[in-house]
Design a protein that fits this description.
- By secondary structure, the chain is α+β, with helices and mostly antiparallel strands.
- The chain is built from 10 helices and 20 strands.
- The strands form 4 sheets. It has a 13-stranded mixed sheet.
- The N terminus and C terminus are likely disordered.
């Protein structure tokens, strides 16, 4: 069994009290409290429903992100529920080709306890004895996020939970990386392990689509790829600048046959330190979700750790198979990189480097980011092998012809939603010349 000494990120104020049994009666997310609660409910629109008038007023285009999510997040900040003030953290764009973003977040050092973390099993059974999100207090929950029955989104400030099904909730991360950092926890009472399937990935895509902003991304880390809790969850936050990976050139992967009606475009990253696949488009969110989920399922079942970035309001997804934790456990990562205590999960891989020591922040360079992330990536030969297996699993045959390289300027930031910039970003403060 491969293990590494890890210091877990604290996601909830109740995490340190992981020995407390379920049924605590303290207004938690467990079966004792949640089914009779009246949390706010955001019911997202059902794209499959007919476009007929229901008499329900349309919500403003910026309601979900600006009014609800960020408004509730700032409310929790004013109530002192976070372990530190992330809006006070220094942030800069590192000079260089891609503009990696560096943040000094010394608060993520605080109040942590060492643990043994198994890194050689992507799929592990849910363990109710360990911390999980049913032990989170309801004051950390912003709202329930569930599918509606109408073609319009609906918000109910007080909605009694349906006792016949497990609700999905959006909660704060009390150790935030960025402004608006939240957790999407699908079907929280079902106690699902950290494992992607088409339904929970589709839920995450709907959240990105409802936000309607290129500044708002969701991320997923598998076990073995720096997920810290084995209870199904996605992370999301607002960063008002393109991620470096969004600007990386890509090469379309021509498909010879298979899935003849599929409208999803497949590409691979080029000239980026972590090799990855890019999925775009599709006739519906469900089509895109199904294809990406089947790719993730193959990785899970074949024990290959991976990270997922959901970008461009759910229309563009990056998939990164990775091997950093395995290299770390085998002693194959340099001490210089280990000393930074940076665990390259989805945000770091995408180009947002969260640094815990002031020296590392002051010395941050594109060369450092490139060296760290290069250790994450599969070798070219192994990546091509994994890609071929993924395509076989989803029923595609790659063509032998070579496609042209596509240059990307980052996600287009002219969305219909007006996004409030994080309060700690004054105009121009991100760019260093």
């Amino acid at each position: 069994m491969l293990t590494i000494k890890r210091v877990p990120t604290v996601l909830s104020n109740y995490q340190d009290d992981s020995s407390e049994p379920r049924g605590c009666g303290r207004n938690c997310l467990g079966e004792c409290c949640l089914p009779v609660s009246k949390l706010p409910l955001y019911a997202f629109k059902n794209d499959a429903s007919p476009d007929v008038s229901s008499g329900v007023a349309e919500l403003p285009s910026d309601f979900f992100l600006n009014t609800l999510l960020l408004g509730q997040w700032e409310d929790r900040m004013s109530r002192g529920l976070f372990r530190y003030d992330v809006t006070a953290c220094e942030t800069k764009v590192i000079p260089g080709k891609y503009g990696f973003v560096a943040q000094l977040n010394e608060g993520r050092h605080l109040k942590k306890r060492p643990t043994e973390f198994r890194v050689d099993r992507v799929l592990q059974p849910f363990d109710p004895a360990k911390f999980n999100f049913t032990k989170v207090g309801q004051e950390e929950v912003l709202f329930r996020f569930e599918a509606g029955e109408d073609h319009k989104s609906l918000f109910l400030e007080h909605a009694v939970a349906d006792e016949t099904k497990s609700p999905s909730v959006v909660a704060i991360n009390v150790s935030p990386i960025e402004y608006g950092h939240v957790l999407l926890i699908p079907r929280v009472l079902d106690c699902l392990p950290q494992r992607i399937d088409p339904d929970n990935l589709l839920l995450a895509l709907h959240m990105a689509a409802e936000a309607g902003s290129a500044y708002f991304r969701l991320g997923y880390n598998s076990l073995g790829a720096f997920a810290t809790i084995n209870h199904l969850h996605f992370q999301a936050y607002v960063l008002s600048t393109p991620f470096p990976v969004e600007k990386a050139p890509t090469q379309k992967i021509p498909i010879e046959n298979g899935l003849s009606q599929c409208r999803v475009k497949f590409s691979k990253l080029l000239d980026y330190p972590v090799r990855g696949l890019v999925y775009e488009g599709g006739s519906t969110l469900k089509e895109l979700s199904d294809i990406v989920a089947r790719s993730c399922i193959w990785l899970q079942e074949n024990n290959i750790p991976f990270n997922v970035l959901i970008s461009d309001s759910g229309r563009r997804i990056f998939l990164f198979p990775q091997c950093y934790a395995e290299k770390q456990a085998l002693g194959e990562v340099s001490q210089e990189l280990l000393d930074t205590q940076v665990n390259p999960a989805v945000w770091e891989i995408s180009g947002h480097m969260v640094l815990k020591r002031k020296k590392d922040y002051e010395d941050a360079s594109e060369d450092y980011a490139w060296r760290l992330l290069s250790e994450v990536s599969l070798s070219e030969a192994r990546f091509e092998e994994v890609k071929a297996y993924i395509f076989e699993a989803i029923g595609l045959v790659e063509s032998k012809e070579t496609a042209a390289v596509e240059k990307n300027e980052g996600t287009p930031y002219q969305s219909s939603t007006t996004v409030s910039a994080a309060p700690h970003f004054t105009e121009g403060c991100l760019v260093l010349h």
